[in-house]
């Protein structure tokens, strides 16, 4: 029987989740669910200097908002907790010592001052200082010192770090599900610190130990971690543990130009790059994006289904997802496409759900007056105008005339449509409307058109000015639908008001 798929999203709580991190979480979720596996959240908070208050709550809330909750993690203890590394800190040292015992790691006593000097010396010669096989015997560590000297230093409580002993002259063959085989010459690797002088593990050690203990089968993470892959593989080998499979996701690139999408790009372009607001930065949620649209858009940022399909529910994404269809090259972030997804999802949402959100907006704008419009009315408005909207917040601009009579008329349109005989025609329309019993769109349309043919008038003489007085400008959906919605009394009232206002 093959082992159960287990993946983890392992953010460091150093701030809000950037859109790239959110996509990493999403791909982990999709892969887990596709394979009937578990999706874990592990908080990598061993670096206390970079810890940011509130970041963990933010991450949890963001995943929940997107509808991609984790199966195990902080607050949802499974069999492999705790899930915050700060709460696991006591277990890492033993693993670092195990590596020393196996001859795969060593104590290093070099002071930060002496290392700085080495760095500066190298820089002055235009070189980079690397601590590894080629110089470690000349530095202060348990490989260069005698056993006794080392023991003395340890007994005296001298500060030390534990470094990995990178092998010399080995050709590593690494494998990445997305990138295929990667060859690395171990001579270029440095002896990374695994355990720090403050008694905390570094990212590399804690990450490997936890992935092993938490039975992670696949590590899916951003491309920025690809340079760490060789060390991680070597660590698995050093412990004689089976390594998980790795998949490094492509970077998310700026809308224009070169480079990685940044917070600044969002600020400059006026689009969110965070799921939820964080300090001054507006999030997708607060900007009125639907979580379904964000998830749908993010899924196609670097992954493709191999078909023309663009709109996916989360369930459909789970069904179609595979790591093999993730691209190697960076995925350009297109804010317009992002909006388009929201527009598409807005059409898929039920009118009642949208009406509920829109009602809040109405009450804010109209105060008590907003309450004159019941849910049924607001729902009808939504169904009439949502087609052209990408956000609920655009509905007011698109349909304010369905809630209040126009306070002014578009001047250009007046100049073009309001002729000398228009008041007379409009007056006649008032008479016709007045006589209609059942004031629905089809009946009103039939009666008005009948009258136009009877009078042998052109539609152009009647319909555009009629729209102008009902809407205030030349926009909007089918005019008779609008009239049905606002009703007979209001339609007549608007025409009469316009006759007074426009016929000086
Ligand atoms: N803590 C790392 C991060 O912040 C995790 C990288 C990984 O997934 O291995 O992204």
UniProtKB/TrEMBL annotation:
Sequence similarity: Belongs to the class-I aminoacyl-tRNA synthetase family. Glutamate--tRNA ligase type 1 subfamily.
Lineage: Bacteria, Pseudomonadati, Bacteroidota, Flavobacteriia, Flavobacteriales
Catalytic activity reported: tRNA(Glu) + L-glutamate + ATP = L-glutamyl-tRNA(Glu) + AMP + diphosphate
Annotated Aminoacyl-tRNA synthetase class I anticodon-binding domain residues: 364-499
InterPro entries reported in the protein's UniProt record: aa-tRNA-synth_I_cd-bd, aa-tRNA-synth_I_codon-bd_sub2, aa-tRNA-synth_I_CS, aa_tRNA-synth_I_cd-bd_sf, Glu-tRNA-ligase_bac/mito, Glu/Gln-tRNA-synth, Glu/Gln-tRNA-synth_Ib_cat-dom, GluQ/Sye
Intervals of motif 'KMSKS' region: 260-264
Biological source species: Flagellimonas hadalis
Gene3D superfamilies: 1.10.10.350, HUPs (3.40.50.620)
Name of this protein: Glutamate--tRNA ligase
Record-listed ATP binding positions: 263
